[in-house]
Specification:
Structural class: mainly beta
CATH architecture: Beta Barrel
Helix content: under 10%
CATH topology: Porin
Order of helices and strands: HHHEEEEHHEEEEEEEEEHEEEEE
CATH superfamily: Outer membrane protein transport protein (OMPP1/FadL/TodX)
Strand content: over 45%
Number of domains: 1
Shape: elongated
Low-confidence stretches: 1-16
Strand order of the largest sheet: 1-2-3-5-6-7-8-11-12-14-15-16-17-18
């Protein structure tokens, strides 16, 4: 393409950070785990709900706590990531350490029974992951997709004309390295109230805050020197660097009901209200284009950097859960299930500059996602005459995608136990293995699938948690 200075012409589409399905699913994840013991039981803990973890699983279970309880825990994660794109796979592993929770509960005896109040901090979603890929793409190019979308930078850097036309459409080597960090933190306060000999009610309210940081370096270059015509398409390499930082705050509440038959059986129900998130986002993207040597042996290089910010709201769906447990001769068997309709996720209140992109994302959520069910079962055994407990569980979460992908259903297996150092002090430990896949977007969106590039990110996190609980 001709290397001259063009006069400034405002294109109809301004620069803005695109939103994808994975942005919706990131904040739709819910969990029921504060303590290491609950992690050992997974979703089946809903059927037990008898310690400080009831704050999150079913606040009605707080009424089952007979004494003051204090709990603290720490976690370590080894996260395996595998990217599959165009029949090629790439692996990358990362580690993460964190304070998992800090909580306290206190029962108050009354004429009608026990009312227990509790408050706790816990780390909710962990966004840490890093992954990369290197592939020769014969099907599409980032330059072509961005040109078709009439992104201003493709014209400014002489890769496309004013109408978005370019010849650089495919057969480029592409590399990508993504690093994601951050997570959400919760402060939850709640109470469980005895309303009868065998029934308790509960309520909790949760404030959320956190960050999500995303950086990507994406490179595509003309490895085979296909685009080599001077002043037409003598393109050599494009380097894209993206950075995003989101500050997130939110609020939700939960109601619970728990019934029991002596020490033999419990049945649990709870409803979590939608979480309302406020997201303040800052982002930047730089494009650096290198061309082949011109007839004078000079390499032309052009670059541009764009920065911006967004502010918008996210509403997650209701979450309905139920559980059942049986206890006999030191063995407790429990099961739990929860359901949320992910299609009820909604992005709203965005600025006018990016409102159209959020409309596209909301349509994609309805078209491409489905309701999710998590079910599981677990067992806990107290060894007679020994200060030991052992527990194990399995849980499964169905795929969120209408057009399913391999391994999109999440499988979780936990193995853990407890050691009683004294009558009131218990040390809990657990290993949890999880396996699932997500569909990710390299560039483009479903509105123009011909120019879209997608890949599968398979994740295999191993979580190790250690906690101490003290009842006094």
């Amino acid at each position: 393409m001709k290397k001259t200075v063009f006069m400034f012409i405002l294109l109809s589409v301004s620069f803005a950070k695109a939103q994808f399905i994975e942005d919706a699913l990131r904040y739709a994840n819910s969990q029921h785990f504060i303590t290491s013991r609950a992690v050992g039981l997974n979703v089946s803990y809903i059927g037990i709900s008898d310690d400080i973890n009831a704050l999150l699983a079913n606040p009605a279970g707080l009424a089952l706590i007979p004494k003051n309880e204090f709990s603290v825990g720490f976690g370590f994660s080894h996260i395996g990531n595998e990217v599959s794109i165009l029949s090629k796979k790439s692996n990358f592993n990362v580690n993460n350490e964190y304070l998992s929770h800090l909580a306290i509960a206190s029962p108050i005896s009354g004429s009608n029974g026990i009312t227990t109040v509790a408050i706790g901090y816990f780390r909710d979603n962990d966004f840490k992951k890093s992954y990369d890929y290197n592939v020769f793409n014969t099907q599409s190019s980032y330059i072509f997709q961005q040109s078709q979308a009439k992104k201003r930078w493709t014209y400014d850097l002489l890769l496309a004309d004013i109408n978005g036309n370019t010849s650089i459409s495919d057969s480029l080597r592409q590399t990508s390295f993504v690093d994601e960090m951050g997570g959400t933190h919760n402060i939850t306060g709640g109470m469980g109230i005895d309303v009868g000999d065998n029934v308790s009610l509960g309520f909790s309210i949760t404030g959320k805050w956190g960050t999500f940081e995303y950086s990507r370096e994406f490179v595509e270059w003309d490895e085979l020197n296909i685009y080599n015509k001077w002043q037409i398409d003598d393109f050599d390499k494009l380097i894209v660097k993206e950075k995003i930082k989101q500050n997130v705050s939110g609020i939700t509440a939960q109601f619970g009901l728990l019934g029991k038959i002596e020490d033999f059986m419990r049945i649990s129900f709870s409803i979590k209200l939608p979480t309302w998130y406020q997201v303040d986002e800052k982002f930047s993207v730089s494009h650096d284009v290198i061309f082949d040597k011109n007839p004078q042996g000079i390499v032309d290089r052009f670059d541009t950097t764009q920065r911006g910010s967004n502010s918008y709201n996210i509403r997650t769906p209701f979450v309905y859960s139920a559980g059942l447990s049986f206890h006999l001769l030191g063995l407790t068997f429990s099961t739990g299930v929860e359901y949320q309709d992910v299609t009820q996720m909604k992005f709203s209140d965005a600025s006018a500059e990016v409102a159209e992109q959020f409309d596209i994302l909301n349509r994609m959520i309805i078209r491409h996602l489905v309701g999710q069910t998590t079910w599981g079962f677990g067992a806990e055994y107290k060894f007679p005459a020994l200060p030991l407990e052992a527990r194990a569980s399995y849980a499964k979460t169905t795929s969120p995608y209408q057009l399913d992908i391999p391994n999109a259903a999440k499988s979780t297996f936990s193995l853990g136990g407890s050691l009683y150092l004294s009558k009131g002090i218990r040390v809990d430990g657990v290993l949890r293995w999880t396996d699932f896949s997500e569909q990710r977007t390299a560039y483009g969106n479903e509105e123009n699938p011909v120019t879209m590039s997608k890949y599968i990110l398979k994740q295999n996190p191993l979580n190790i948690l250690l906690g101490v609980s003290y009842r006094y």
